[in-house]
Amino acid sequence: MSEYQSRPKSRLSRFHGRVEHADGRRCESPGCPEPGEFRAPRSPRPERDGYHWFCLDHVRAFNAGYDYFKHLSAEEVAAERAGHPSWERSSRPFATNAGAGDLHIDDPHGILSALKGWGRRFGAGGARPDGVRLSAKDRQALKVLGLGDDATLETIKKQYKRLARRYHPDTNGGDRSQEHQLHKVIDAYTHLSQSPAFSS
User: Fold this and answer.
1) Residue 197, Cβ neighbours under 10 Å: how many?
2) Nearest one of 129, 134, 124, 122 to 98, comparing CA atoms
């Protein structure tokens, strides 16, 4: 009995890729009498070219020296790389301006309130200190007006009037360069005045 055959099956079965029923195949390494229980690709296209069958020791040796591009021409290597559109493209960074309040996480028991960035303001998944839930559009509109989540409808009205005067062409000598910002302020106020979070 060889060393391979005397090894406990439990040890062999833990190796990924071992084929339990290899149909009596023998290891393809010259002179090796062991069963061929592990397959290795004959080429980068094993679905076309098939597999080698090796014992554990020889499949390890095969894997240690395996080079996917070994049998490919320069054109085929270039085609392989071109097939992966993100190969040479850098990954986009994650958002750096996201706050805990933007996560929309329900935390009714206040489990997250002790963590940095979570307080009464963010502890209930986008709710104000009084418990009223704000939508993402609510918070975006408040941001346009320069207000926090704890703003009241009265505060919103006052801020809207102040910003409308600041950006209106009539108060800027007919200068319309701030008109785009004025429209953003109007849209934000319109949304908030109709939002359930601010209805009395």
Assistant:
1) 19
2) 122
Q: Which residues does 121 contact at the CB level (< 8 Å), separation at least 6?
A: 101, 128, 129, 148, 149, 150
Structure tokens at 127: 């709710």
Give the residue range(s) of CATH 1.10.287.110 domains in the chain: 134-200
Exposure class string for 21-42: b at 16+ Cβ within 10 A, else e:
eeeeeebbbeebebbbbbbbee
Q: Which of 146, 184, 189, 182 is nearest to 166 (CA)?
A: 182
What is the C-alpha to C-alpha distance for residues 185 and 187, in angstroms, rounded to an integer? 5
Q: How many CA atoms lie within 13 A of 95 on its CB side?
A: 6
**For each of the chain's 200 residues, which pLDDT tens digit applies?**
444 444 555 455 555 667 766 567 889 999 999 888 888 888 877 888 888 899 989 989 988 888 777 777 888 777 776 655 555 556 665 555 555 545 555 566 666 655 655 544 444 445 566 667 888 898 899 999 998 888 888 999 999 999 988 888 888 788 888 888 989 999 999 999 888 888 75
Whole-structure pTM value: 0.39
* Region 134-200: CATH code: 1.10.287.110
Residue 151: count of CB within 10 angstroms of its CB = 20
Token pair in block for residue 40: 């290795």
Q: Give CA–CA dist 186/141, Å, rounded.
A: 10
